[in-house]
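Q: Entry one of two.
A:
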Amino acid sequence: MAKYSSHRLVDRPKASSLKPIRQALPFLKPYSGRLILALCCLTLVAASALGMPIAAHYVIDFGFSNDQVQSIGRYFFTLMVLSFVYAMFSALRFYYVMWTGELAVADIRSKVYAYIVKMSHTFYEVARTDR
């Protein structure tokens, strides 16, 4: 991954471990139910996305043929239902992931604030903030 530093592109070295992600897991654990719901929504979105080309195939191949004129409505209805499922569960997945992330960040902030408040007054006298 690249980032900009002093107006030129600099490659960032690859991370050597997943330790920073593992440190966030205790903050995500209380919200595991929401993450499971997000995973279920993701599964339904993937299934509906995989079904859309098949439904479009039936609309094109069988819906417009002279033999089965009455079936075009059924094929379009299936395509619309799959589109609706895709849209609804994509929105729900996004909602659950964002909601869980915001709750976890709020927990991290609370823990950091509690740590800072408990620090001794001498730390604030010695530590410089002008660097």
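Q: Entry two of two.
A:
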Amino acid sequence: MSDEHLGRYVQILDSLIKRERLSQNEVERRLGWSKGSLSRLLSGKRGLEIRHLLQVLEVIKVTPQEFYGLVHPPVAPASLASAVMVEIAGDGGSLPPMVLPPRLTAEELDVRIEEALRRVFAEQAKVPPARS
């Protein structure tokens, strides 16, 4: 895990503990950890292991799935055009905008655009309209 990802995990974990209005001492007490253990984890002085993360999440009543969703929130396409480009790329959108896959004929491009538009519109139809 990169330092950037680890920093995000720790930042969100710390925020969730504060949201529950628990002190670090209280979390440590509930986990049976020695005083200062959580502080060392959150400051990076001690490595954050999965088992530690899961233990803290259990105390603050956050599921691993909820935590993962906070660390890696889904990114919605900014516009219909970008959504179509993601669909055309067909690989999770790793291609930069306006760069087409190599060796794509005009007919293949037409088919991919049509399929992408169908998927995007179908997905948008599942999303309820925003309330004013």
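A: Comment on entry two: The two ends are 41 Å apart (CA to CA). The helical segments are 3-19, 24-31, 37-43, 50-59, 64-71, 80-89, 106-126.
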